[in-house]
Every structure is written in C-alpha cells, then in structure tokens.
Amino acid sequence: MSTDVDSTPTALTRAWEARADVAQASLDHWFGAPEPQRWHNTHPPGDDAVFNYWWLAHVVDVRVDAWHRTGDPAWLADAAAVADHIQARNAGVLFNDYFDDMLWYALALLRLHRAGGERRHLDSAVSLWQHVVEEGWNDTLGESLAWRKQSLQYKNTPANGPLVILSARLHEVTGDPRCLPYAQQALSWLEENLVEASGFVHDGVNREGDGRIDTHWRFTYNQGLYVGALVALEAVTGEAGLVERAERTALTTLEELAEDGLFRDEGDGGDVGLFKGVAYRYLGVLVDRLAAGDGAGSAATRQRLVDFVRSSTDALWERCVVDGHLLPANDWKSPARGTIPYSTLLSAIKATELRTRLEEGRPADSRLA
C-alpha cells in the first residue's frame, strides 16, 4: 500500500488562490492613480489631499502576503516599491507625528526584510523603533508609549500593541537587548490599564487629560493587536500563559464584536476600514500558533477561529464582487454603496489571503530569504 500523500491542490484551494489574485488586482483596478499619488484614497476618486502613511504600510504588508503565497518576485518588488513610495511621499523622511503609524511602517519593513533579505529595510525598521521609543515613551499613567507627539499624555492600544509586536520581533531578528524590555513593559501596561478580565481590550486612556478610558470605542483592531502582542512575545520568551490569554481575547472578540459569522459594522471613516484587517492578521497568527498543539481546548479555539474566517470570507465574496473585482464596504453583509476608501479593500485582501493560506495549510511567513 502506498503511503504517498496527495499534495495536489484541491479545487477549493485553487479557487481561493484565484480569489486572492483578484483581491490584490482590485486595489489597482478600483483605486489606481498616476504617480506620485499611485492610489486614490477613495472610489470614486475624491479628495486625495490626505497622505495615508499607515494605509500604505499595509499595502506593503498585503504585497508581501502575495509573495509568500505565490513566490512571484514581482510581488516582492512591488512591496519594496511601495515602501520607497511612503518615504518619498513623506518628504524623503521615515518619521511622522504618529507613533502607531510609524510602528506599522516598521512592521511592514521588517517583514519585507525577512522576505527579501535587504539590509536597508531592517535598518529602517530599527531606526523607526528607536525614534518611537525616544520620542514617545514616557511615564504618564505608567511607563508606556504615547499615541502621537502632540498628545504625549494619551496612551492607547493602537500604539502599545504594535510596539510589543515590533520589539519582540526585532529582539528575535537582531538580538538587540534593548528591545525585549520595551515589549514586556508595554504589554504589562496594556494589561494593567486596558484589558478587562474577559480579555476584551479597550482603545485608550487619558485622551482628554482626565484619566478616562474610552470604553465606547469597541474595535476589532484593538483585540487583534493584543492577540498579536501576546503571540509575538510568547514566540521569543516561551512565557507560560500568554497563548491562553490570546485565546481568551480571540473568543471574546467573536462573542462581543461578531454576529452571524461576520464582524459587525464598526462605523464610517477611512481608518475604520482597516480595523478588521488587523484583527484578521493576528487572529491568523494565533491560528498558526495553536496548530502546534496545546490540548483539546486550544484545538477547539483554533477550529472556531478557522470557521469564522471561512464564514466571513464566504460572505465577503458572495456579496462584495463588482464586475469581477472585489469592492467591499465596511459592512460585509451587503454590497458597497457610495464612496469607498481603499482601507476597506485592504482588510478584505488580508482576510482573503488568510483564508487562502488556511485552505493551503500554509503558516504565515513561511517563505523567507
């Protein structure tokens, strides 16, 4: 009897690979613009005055996703071109006023370095990390990172979550002894100030200088960041309990922010469009980690997350395809109407790439330089 495993792609896998290609192509189809703009902020085109630095960092990310899926060097070249485009549009400098924006750029550059091996991308990621901690780390409400340079009193998950992830990954890649303590302290601060006993993660505190937590802002973005932070730190420390806390928050996210197999509409606004994409990114990282095996409970959590990815991406592709291309609104329950920012498409690309690699049985970032 043969013990060979049939490794040929299934029809389902091939279908999702084709959809991932369509999703990536949809960015240029709906939003493409002449240089130096490259992409209009919305479809139909409107006001392009705003330079969406952090959206573009996620364009780098999704192009790296496409390279991991296909191995086509054109995707990696495009990711590098977008990374250069961000700096060129930013008056030739890496830095801006928002610490969370810079951390997203650094995370994308670090992935790009690990994929393509170019030292300049790692050097830029390190420069961004160093600038962020030098300019934004302070002891207001406890040692942690501020949101932006003009609001050093305001502390939030969107800044401290990616700082944990970047610091842990830079520690892993470079061995720089400065990085890990920032990851550990930022996570401790988050858990002491913004994470509920249920695992639900609030957005921020002290935005108006009154010490108040913004409990009314209930976003998938924050849940994903905390999950990603826990998994990133566990990968370099092996600390017990981190994965279990990530599981708790992932399940709470589905209980609190999803309905009928989809994330609920989180509101209007361009930045909001990317929030669920961040959640998909880091829920996918947790799915990968749970595949290593942590008992029956973890297997059940993993299956529930996979089922959610499948149900939500099925709905996305059933309802949000227009003329053969993907065009979603923030709410995937119905087709897009009116003006759509490209941030919403980036979330859909992230979810589609995640669905595709789950069907392929491929962990994230498995094709490295």
Provide a count of the helices.
12
Strand order of the largest sheet: 1-10
- Compute the separation of the termini in Å: 38 Å
Question: Which percent range fits the helix content?
Answer: 55-70%
SSE order: HEHHHHEEEHHEHHEEHHEEEH
Q: Give the beta-strand count.
A: 10
Q: What's the overall geometry?
A: globular
Which blocks of ≥5 consecutive residues have pLDDT under 50? 1-7
Mean pLDDT: 95
Entry summary:
With 369 residues, the protein is mainly α.
How does this structure look, described?
The chain has 369 residues and is mainly α. It has helices spanning 11-31, 53-70, 73-89, 99-116, 119-136, 157-174, 179-193, 220-237, 242-257, 275-290, 296-319, 342-360; strands at 42-43, 137-138, 144-145, 155-156, 204-205, 258-259, 262-263, 321-322, 325-326, 340-341. The protein has a two-stranded antiparallel sheet with strand order 1-10. Helix 2 packs parallel to helix 4 (99-116), helix 9 runs parallel beside helix 11 and helix 10 packs parallel to helix 12 (342-360). The radius of gyration is 20 Å and the shape is globular. The two termini are 38 Å apart.
Provide the fold topology.
Blueprint: H1 11-31, E1 42-43, H2 53-70, H3 73-89, H4 99-116, H5 119-136, E2 137-138, E3 144-145, E4 155-156, H6 157-174, H7 179-193, E5 204-205, H8 220-237, H9 242-257, E6 258-259, E7 262-263, H10 275-290, H11 296-319, E8 321-322, E9 325-326, E10 340-341, H12 342-360
Antiparallel strand pairs: 1-10, 2-3, 4-5, 6-7, 8-9
